Amino acid sequence: MPYAFGLKNEFLASPRIDNLSSVYSSLEGLLQAENNSGICVAAMLDNEEVGSLTAQGADGDFLENVLRRIAYALRFDDNEYYKALASSFLLSADNAHALHPNHPEKSDPTNKTLMGGGVVIKTHANKAYVTDGLSAAILKTVFDNANVKYQAFFNRSDARSGSTLGAASQRHIGIRGADIGIAQLAMHSACECFASADYTEMVNGITAFFNSTIENTQNGISVK
Fold first, then answer.
1. Rounded to whole angstroms, how far apart are CA atoms 203 and 148?
2. pLDDT per residue rounded down to tens, the chain (224 residues)
3. Which of 9, 16, 96, 215 could covalently link to 153 via disulfide, CB atoms 3.0 to 4.6 Å apart?
4. Which domain range does residue 149 map to?
């Protein structure tokens, strides 16, 4: 059973925090958003933990087909569809490993991701995550505009990490994007845990993302 713990019950322990917290916060963010300037999509895809190589997984064609059907309903031709992709932004949500007090050597030596530190923006030197310098700057601007607390996660470059839906999806739709998540301990165990305040920040961050307008202009990228 899920339970709260900590000096002020600030932490939550439960099985399946990863990936259900990402799914539910994405749904909450979509429902709370009031963006009338574009089409917002929240995709919940199966089989991420076994590689996404299924018809309903991120490395299948389900998401691409849905986007094409939306474009078809709007009477877009192929050129308009690809222009829409080029002006879109993909947010891939999957939890991150927090600094473990008993095993600090597992974390990047110059970057400590903490439970309670806010939404994690995830970067990987070997490109397991889709975040790059430009997409990180865009997302930080979105979060700054909405006063959303965030922190950075850099996977150790000499250690493998898990894959995310963002990296799998980009092979099919090629949208600029960033990986985010909640910092947690005991990932994939029967008793995962995270700071409850980080979930609130995650919902606020995703809502702010859906409410934002990200445009390519002659002077660069505009975030409103």
1. 10
2. 899 999 999 999 999 998 899 999 999 999 999 977 789 999 998 876 666 777 777 888 999 999 999 999 999 999 999 999 999 999 999 999 999 989 988 888 888 899 999 999 999 888 889 999 999 999 999 999 999 999 999 987 777 777 788 888 888 898 999 999 999 999 989 999 999 999 999 999 999 999 999 988 888 899 98
3. 96
4. 3-45+52-223
CATH of the domain at 119: 3.40.630.10
Residue type, 160: R
Q: How far apart are CA 153 and CA 162, in angstroms?
A: 14
pTM of the model as a whole:
0.93
Domains in the chain, number:
1
Burial 33-67 (b: 16+ CB within 10 A, else e): beeeeeeeebeebebbeeebeeeebbbbebbeeeb
Cβ atoms of 84 and 71 within 8 Å: the answer is yes
Q: What angle do CA 187, 189, 190 make, to 5 degrees?
A: 135
Beta-bridge mates of residue 95: none
